[in-house]
Amino acid sequence: MFRQKPLAAAVSMAVWSLAAVPAMAQDAPAGQIQTVEVTGIRASMAKSLAVKRDAATNVEVITAEDVGKMPDKNIADSLQRLSGVAVRTDYDEAEKVAMRGTNPDHTLILFNGHTVSGGDWYFADQLSSSRSTSLSLMPSTVINQAVVHKTSEAKLVDGGMAGTINVTTRKPLAQKERLTGVVNLGGVYSDLPSKFAHDTNAAINWKNESGTFGFITTVFAEKRHVRRDSASRFAYSGGSGWDVINLDTMKGITDESLAGTGYKASDLQGVRIPGSMSTEYVEGVRDRKGGMFSLQFKPNNDLDMTLTGFHSEMKANNFGRLNAGAMFSMLRGLGGVQGTNVPTNSNGQRVYAQIKNPVIVTERTLYGHELKVLKAADIVYPAGTTPQYIGETEGAYRDGAKASSAFLDLDVKYRVSQDLTVKALLSATKGVGKTALDQGLTYTRYGTGVSYALGSLYDAPFVQYYGTGPNVPGRNPDGSGYVLSGRAASGVTTNDKEHSINLDAEYKLNSAFVNSLDFGVRHADHRRDSARRFPQLRNSNLESFAPTGAFNFQPLPADFGSGLDGPAGWDNTSWTLTPEALKAYFAANYKPTNAQWERRVSTELDMRERQSAGYLQANLEGERWSGNVGVRYVRTKVNAAVPAPIPVGLCPRTEPGKPATTCAAVPGAITTASDGVQYYDGVPFNPLAGVMYYKEAKESTFNNLLPSLNLRYELTKDQILRFGTSKTISRQNYNILGAGYGSPTCTDGICQVTGPNPNLEPMFAKNVDLSWAWYFARRSVVSVNLFASNITGYPKTGVAGQDRVTLLDPRDNIVKEFAVNSASQQGARIRGIEIMYEQPFGSTPFGFTSNVSKAKTKVDDGRPMVGASEYAANLGLYFENEKVSARLVANYRSEYVNTSTAPAPNANSQGLSTINGVLMPVAPTMAAPVTTLAFNASYNLTPDLVLSLDATNLTNVKRAYYRYSEAEPQKLDVAGRSYYVNLKYRF
């Protein structure tokens, strides 16, 4: 099933050829592991294993030097190497981290013990309002240590249902020398866009002679050009995704049109068919800049204070082009703009596309049903038909796309007495995701037909369009070509911020079994808001200031799609407007009003969440065993200001530039926002047009107890047995709790509207974990870990719940009660195993690391768990001596349900669909298995000067997606390789 190009043999052989270099340096004595300065792969592995071995709970560990010896560009890249960890990757860079088969929303990311807010750079993610933390803003150079907690304990911050990851940054006084630093100068070459960029960072550490005060300053400026080539089934609403052939609406499919094929029209009834053959081309940039500082004051052994600040901003303008077919619309005889319900017209007659040369196969779906699929066909209009609507081409430039993340924390530790130590952690964090303007124009394409043939999952399909004329903008005399048919422009800003305080204490008892008590409290005030901006345009005429002239248009590059393979002759050509032409069009058509008028209240998110917790944990210790037992009390208070619609005509809207009006019927009505009402030049303003909204206050409070128990037992000096059981919590995504109402519909006396469910309780998991580890030699371990989780409160989206709201029936303009179509809750479970094995190759400079995990998930309604991969694996080979170090790493992730990390509350991902008379679950989009390969090598020119080479995505992997089965390919992406060369100087 899984097929990729062969691995680069030269790269693989390069690792083994290093054996000719002088023998490796002597290992540091075992007793020095905790204090020696880590300087290489072997020492960093020893340190990580020592921390893992001594921990009371089941953890995985990454150290700073380990990251430096891997081809990792952000923290997520590093974490994906660990057992049980998988990542969501975009443009060949890991972004969001998932653990043990779950979605990234269920993993809690901490920095220095507190949460960190981060913005998303991509427009759709900025709108999703998930709880997952994007690590694309966090360069790997800021890590001191990352500890992955696979089992929970009472003193851990709550929120990680599947696990918690705590990333610590460096402390100034931990360095051995008074003045140290590093300067890294380098560059990166991205082979698909064929562009170079800089890759630089620097750090300096100083402490005074007495070792009581010091500081660290780190800066980074890293840029990378990205490109993605895709073949997909995406199109507009009239032709997206997959559907079935319906002879009642697709009247061109007849026995006569199928003559000579061996099929009758009835044979095609209900056969699955792709709605479109599309190509997508995206270019962008990742320009990440920022820095970190840390000040540490330790006047004596009793008091230690550290102030740490971090800021990172990534500018990520991106430009997408789409060339989409419209086979559904063609077969249904629809010729309107973008597949609307306008009949085709050829010489005064409505025409329907026919199916010629069909190839039908039978698929078995992931739910076990058999379906027929139209694997290949010619979708053509009858001979003599004038050119008709066959699809669209568009360009969308997302200007001012950026994300930022910042935090400031003060960590104070004071030893009150020999037995009592108190700690305080105060933190503030803010993340922003923003796109100033997502602007695009759509051109409708006219022709006479299209041929397609679906190949394997990992090959681009064949596609060829007919009768479209030259592949340039403009309508031709025969009616073929392109016509400007649509425009869209909007911006979005999402803010996420939190202030928190942790007060903790440790009291030593030194009793027979209870060594010490940990206890403390935490309070966090979290706010999340998201708002879209829709600029007001001067008129409805699409042709106003429309770009003309060849200089405003550009074709796709000649090599577009070359990495997607596929059959010879498939149409990989298209064109689009330049970014400058798009920006000029919308600038010329923009009509200044005010920020309030450009609001769409219906899309806004406005939430506040206050989390309070207290815990007590007893740390246990006996002969050959240790552990902890505790309980954490958690109180969550959610406040949501939900946009609620007001019946049309009930409240007057305020004209831009006029004093704001109030509505007597609904005093809280937001009268100054347009919410889609246009204010064109020369058109009288109607204050009663359109839907108006007010913010409806919703509040919920949840109180929960989270017990935990962890035991560690030394079977022998080198064999460790661990057992852990706990109850963990994960709060629902913000959009499920606080999204606005929309799409009211009434059918057969039943009225429904999409909307939030602020009454949803958090998700909980009852977890059991059993592990065995054998540290059989230096830097060597083999371990087996069994785990299970029973989850309650897992969201079931797209279900009419108990909430009701009063709205206007759009059919008769009568106010009625609507059931809110939102999210309910159900159960889920996870059962899994993780195996890890790493070891040097005897006394040679070589060694390897490996791990594999399996996590079987099940949801009550039978659907796969979103974002859950059943299998994940890593294999790494390394070489190190006193001059050279090298590492080749492969990462595998099996298929999973691919969706936004925060699916909309009304998403019908858990509905039912009737296909060929069989009622079955709606098909999710599945991401197919993927294996990536990366390489790192460094050479010590001098003891202080190191030259390094990194390469990522060496096999130029293709990422494939499908629907019910691999016979229904949905999308195929390729993003190219990246090569980094760096010169690092330490002093």
TrEMBL record:
Its main location: membrane. Pfam families: Plug (PF07715), TonB_dep_Rec_b-barrel (PF00593). It comes from the Bacteria. Residues 1-25 form the signal peptide. Keywords: Cell outer membrane, Membrane, Receptor, Signal, TonB box. Residues 52-163 form the TonB-dependent receptor plug domain. InterPro entries: Beta-barrel_TonB, Beta-barrel_TonB_sf, Plug_dom, Plug_dom_sf, TonB_rcpt_bac. Coiled coil: none annotated. It is found in: Cell outer membrane. The keyword Signal applies. Residues 441-954 form the TonB-dependent receptor-like beta-barrel domain. Belongs to the TonB-dependent receptor family. NCBIfam families: TonB-Xanth-Caul (TIGR01782). This is TonB-dependent receptor. It comes from Massilia consociata.
